[in-house]
């Protein structure tokens, strides 16, 4: 049915649709359902340890024998800066007082870990069809080991230069992440991701330029939430798409009821790119914290340390039924999200795109 089979053959999938890995918003259930429906389900592993990854993979394989993806972050852990972290927490002190919290209590640690040797050994042992990376790539030696195990390597690029850098290091396909995308920007060549924001291209300007820059298949990510977006991306030369926000509306996602309500009410101007939730630019639905503290604050500590001081505020507000301090990650196409089961959404996305492309 699909005229371009590069991604389908590379990943051994039926439809050129990858469910975006969304750390903290999903587990094995969503990934398994998408894979079983013919797309590529993705399990985010940056916020869980090796034992949990192993358990989640076992649960995916108990539900489907189709390929799936394990996703990892490749950021450089920040150098601790106690003075900056203290200043950040003091900047939030008024909210602590408002919610009856002790601003002098110890700050919780961040839970986002980069890909390391333990995870590399685990991926070798588990042997998933695909491993994908955000914020760059692991070491050349680790990439070689995964490829020798038969693992297909994907990674995110936000510019043509990043795409060429990924291709030169052996990735099998490039995810072209446009400005519209929800969650964290995959920026890795620019030392200052916040400064790079003003230069980041939208998906449908970025995709054809990355297609022209590399020989490997390109996957469009950002602003794609229905068959129209898929068809447009393929017409621009993409071999497939990565979709995240549309899957957040599925009953299989693990977002909070506050997040789900915000997603249901979202429109084209509901999101903003902010650094206050984690320390790196990421797109989410605007809430009180983003409006009053950000969206961009020069006081926010480096990724992922900014999240620590917000964690008590988030926990207290969520207990009270509020998402005022929660990262409500979503892309600019949030208003197009439909509440469908993940398998049904995957099939409908494919059917709608094929109808528009005239290949049914």
CATH architecture call of the largest domain: Alpha-Beta Barrel
Shape: globular
Oligomer: single chain
Q: Write the CATH homologous superfamily of the largest domain.
A: Aldolase class I
> What is the element string, with H for helices and E for strands?
HEHEHEHHHEHEHEEHHEHEHHEEHHH
Tally of individual domains:
2
Largest sheet: 8 strands, parallel
Question: How many beta-strand elements?
Answer: 11
Separate helix tally: 16
What is the name of the CATH class of the largest domain?
A: Alpha Beta
The chain-level mean pLDDT equals 97
Rounded to the nearest angstrom, the distance between the terminal CA atoms is 7 Å
- The whole-angstrom Rg is 19 Å
Cross-sheet strand order for the largest sheet: 1-9-8-6-5-4-3-2
Query: And the CATH topology of the largest domain?
Result: TIM Barrel
- Strand content of the residues, in percent? 5-15%
Q: Provide the structure class.
A: alpha/beta
Task: Describe what this molecule looks like in 3D.
The chain is of the alpha/beta class. It folds into two domains: 1-75 and 112-252 and 341-360, Aldolase class I (TIM Barrel), CATH 3.20.20; 81-110 and 256-333, no CATH class. It contains 16 helices and eleven strands. The protein has an eight-stranded parallel β-sheet. Helix 2 (28-36) packs parallel to helix 3 (50-63) and helix 11 crosses helix 16. The chain is globular, with a radius of gyration of 19 Å. The model has no long low-confidence stretch (mean pLDDT 97).
